[in-house]
Design goal:
81 residues; mainly alpha
Length: 81
C-alpha cells in the first residue's frame, strides 16, 4: 500500500497521544461515510485508505504496544463501511 501521509510516518504521529490518534482515525472514518453518502466513491475510498493507514501507524507506535491487540479490533468494524 502506498503511504499517503508521509510526514506522519517520519515521526509526528508517534508524538500524539492515543486519544488524539483515535480522534484522527474517527475523522477519516466519518469522511469515508460522508463521501460515500454523497455518492463520491473515489473520495470515499481515499478516506478509507487513510483511516487504515492511521490505524497501522497507531498499532506500530511503541507507546501503544500494550494496546495493539485492542486497536486491531477496529479493522472488522471499518470494513463494514
Amino acid at each position: 500500500m502506498k503511504i499517503i501521509k508521509k510526514d506522519l510516518v517520519i515521526g509526528r504521529w508517534k508524538e500524539l497521544d492515543l486519544v488524539t490518534q483515535m480522534a484522527n482515525i474517527g475523522s477519516e472514518v466519518e469522511r469515508t461515510i460522508s463521501w460515500r453518502d454523497k455518492g463520491n466513491k473515489p473520495y470515499s475510498q481515499k478516506a478509507f485508505y487513510r483511516s487504515l493507514e492511521l490505524i497501522d501507524l497507531t498499532i506500530e507506535s511503541p507507546e501503544n504496544r500494550a494496546r495493539a491487540r485492542m486497536i486491531r479490533k477496529i479493522y472488522p468494524v471499518i470494513y463494514c463501511f
